[in-house]
Amino acid sequence: MDKVFLHQLLGRPTAPFRESHVASLVYEFLIQEKIPYFVDPIGNIVVGVDSKNSYLKKVKDKYKEPVRIFIAHMDHPGFHGAKWVNEKTLAVTWHGGTPRKFLNGARVWLADKTGWKGEGIIQKAKLNPMGSALASSWIVIKRLNDSDLKKKYLPQELYGGFAFSAPFWEKNKIIYTKAADDLVGVFAILSLAKTLKNKNRPFLGLLTRAEEVGFIGTIGHLDLGWLNKARESVVFVSLETSRTLPGALVGKGPIVRLGDRATPFDPSLVQILTQVAQRKLPKNFQRRIMDGGTCEATAAITFGFRAMGISIPLGNYHNQSFEGGPESRGEWGPAPEFVHTKDIEGMLALCEGLMERSELWADPWRSKRENMIASKKAAKHLLKLS
Questions:
Q1: What b-and-e string marks burial along 304-321, b requiring 16 or more CB atoms within 10 Å of the CB?
Q2: What span, in angstroms and rounded, lies between the C-alpha atoms of 259 and 68?
Q3: Among 217, 284, 367, 371, which has the highest number of CB atoms less than 10 A from its own CB?
Q4: Domains of the chain, residue spans
Q5: What is the rounded CA–CA span in Å between residue 297 and residue 307?
Q6: What is the pTM of this model?
């Protein structure tokens, strides 16, 4: 696992509709590794082909197995500047899930299209009508990389999220960070693309925008209609960092996701993924319906595609202090997200396993069916007694 590159991703600022710094690092990686890519009209990055025409050809080629489209998002919940209240106070709107308590006085970072701009603290925090997340607040600027932000920047140019002592740090194989969701998934797709480069395998990656506010990038891509004639020849694989739940714990391995809050996933695909996990990670994976939230597999299913999902158990989902730990401001207050390096390595193993040549795609239930037939035969003499 390339921890240097993972750390670089975790160190980039990002928020819904403000993914440019993550995207620029992705471009650098793909160019350096000579992996083809292009950008769709919505701003999503398509990995593995260099143009729309190549994409359409890829999904129409006659492989014995479906094309696996691995999907992860480049954003994380955060805020956009709305207006200047005074020289050092910025009114902002929040996008995506957030902590609900201990918000006033919490630290935030600020950035613009050129990079990090400074830090501030939250004041006048206001939750949405449901009380489930921040809707708006003021940001009082405490540290500046530029003098007089108000004169230099339009408020809409600035954005940010919750800040901690560092963008990321690691202790006892646990990575604490401002945003693991879903930069870890982005890392997994790029790692897989590097492993598969120069191999003619049915692989594509899709790195999306604005997932945290309703799968906007994914919906935009699917709504292009490019895949309308390829529904039977493609399978979406959602890679996520998902809230820890009973039976889905940090450090116990990646999760074969049976479904999310909205829907169960395709049972045949879940069976394939389970058998891959049993082979690649015996006793080091978990299986569960991850109903702490929804993921991009649901968006794909809504558009008529088959989908499966792999999750990394995520501590302090959306910077909410569910599990506590370093720099937590208290239950339901801001806290760093955290993931285990063992779980990330497991996700990489499952992704590689899904791309290996296998007869599972032709008949995923064969072994289960054979076991059932054997059980019936073993009970043949008992059937006669009835």
A1: ebbbbbbbbbbbbbbbbb
A2: 18
A3: 217
A4: 3-76+169-366, 78-165
A5: 5
A6: 0.96
Quote the CA–CA distance of 192 and 30 in Å, as a whole number: 12
Is 1 within 8 Å of 195 (Cβ atoms)?
no
Residues lower than pLDDT 50 in the chain: none
How high is the pLDDT of residue 142? 87
How far apart are the C-alpha atoms of 234 and 261, rounded to whole Å?
23
What letters, b where the CB count within 10 A reaches 16 and e where it falls short, cover 53-81? eebeebbeeeeebbbbbbbbbbbbbbbbb
Q: What pLDDT does 62 receive?
A: 79
DSSP state of 152: H
- pLDDT reported for residue 148: 63
- For the stretch 182-202, pLDDT in tens is 999 999 999 999 999 989 899
Exposed/middle/buried for residue 85 (C-beta within 10 Å: 0-12, 13-18, 19+) = middle
Determine the Cα–Cα distance for residues 241 and 230; give it in Å rounded to an integer.
28
- pLDDT recorded at residue 152: 76
Contacts of 383 (CB under 8 A, 6+ apart): none
CATH number listed for the domain at residues 3-76+169-366: 3.40.630.10
